[in-house]
Amino acid sequence: MKTNVWRSEKWMLPFFIIWGGQVLSWVGSRVAMFALIWWLTDKTGSATVLASATLAAMLPQIVLGPIAGVYVDRWNRRLVMIAADGLIALVSLWLAILFWTGEIQVWHVYVIMVVRELGGMFHWPAMQSSTSLMVPKEHLARVAGLNQAINGALSIVGPALGALVLAVGEIHHAMLMDVITAVLAITPLLFVFIPQPERAQRDAETKPSVWTDLREGASYVFHWRGLMILTGMALVFKIALTPAFSLLPLLVKSHFDGEAPQLAGMQAAFGIGIILGGLLLGIWGGFKPRILTTIASITAIGFLLIILGGLPPAFFMAAVAVMFVSGAAVALCDGPLFAALQSTIAPEIQGRVFMIFISLVNLTGPIGLAIAGPVTDWAGIQLWYIVAGVLCAAMGIAGFFIPAVVNFEDNRPASVSPLPMPAASD
Hints:
Growth Hormone, Chain: A, 17 helices, 79% helix, 0% strand, disordered N terminus
């Protein structure tokens, strides 16, 4: 693969031009999502509504994510990102009009979340796999740490701007801000070159079907024993953690008797933690092997959730502190894992592998939401945080004693071959 030019100092300018545009888009998306979630919370006050809204956003990725990965590997990734950002801008504009005219209904928000997720499930693997081609392998962990730090900053800026927009303006202004930032993200993609992976020689000769490409990606994942065990652990982690974060607005409102500023404060503390955790990862790089940093962070997140669930209503500032430390743990959890995947998986198959992994992990998110909504409406929201913490802590501790997980980077598949299933045509 002829990508030596991207293995010098020349990689920085084109990468960070594109990356900067994406950061602006993330700001708009955070503002819009904060406004939408708070609107649902204020209008319904129901854990079931919040859980089902998150579920609606997750379903497209679970069902269609692996197929999206196939097309990301086939198509020009720059054009994929342009189309995805454009779709998000259009649906946000539609939602702004609905809010402005007073025609908005709860189901409209559900539809918007689904469509935004459809765009995101193409955009995310395209950006991740492009990063592995534009950034030298030795710098991938640092870029991952920088991404975590920026996500932390956006966790502060997004809720703060969202609360400000709701305080001095209307919710349709938040939607319009999302439209503007999406356009700003598209602009550099129109001019900056992104290297594309070369398809295998047999692909040029035989032009495999979508089903064959999907089988190849699945084979790569299922024959990587360490990744499969790690995926199983992530399934349990996801079923416990998804409701804990989705129902945070209700924890603030019903347990701590807070409002939008208090929710923004907790999310800001979480974001500051992510910033510091990401910066630490960028400087330190994590344990060797890198997965040990991820496992230790999962364990820490579990104990922090137990503490959060056990705090009495008067200890709101303690909850803010817990969210701060949790943010640092999340940064140290995600960054090393995806840096390891980017540096070990061949670029021409990364779209499929990333989306198969993410889809499998997200498969259990709806299960957690389906259980958590009615349970918290009936038994109280704190119970879920305690149960989720116990599950995460136990899973993290177990990970230290599984050699296939600890050494998973060294045991990856040497090649890609389809699973023995009957082929299907497009």
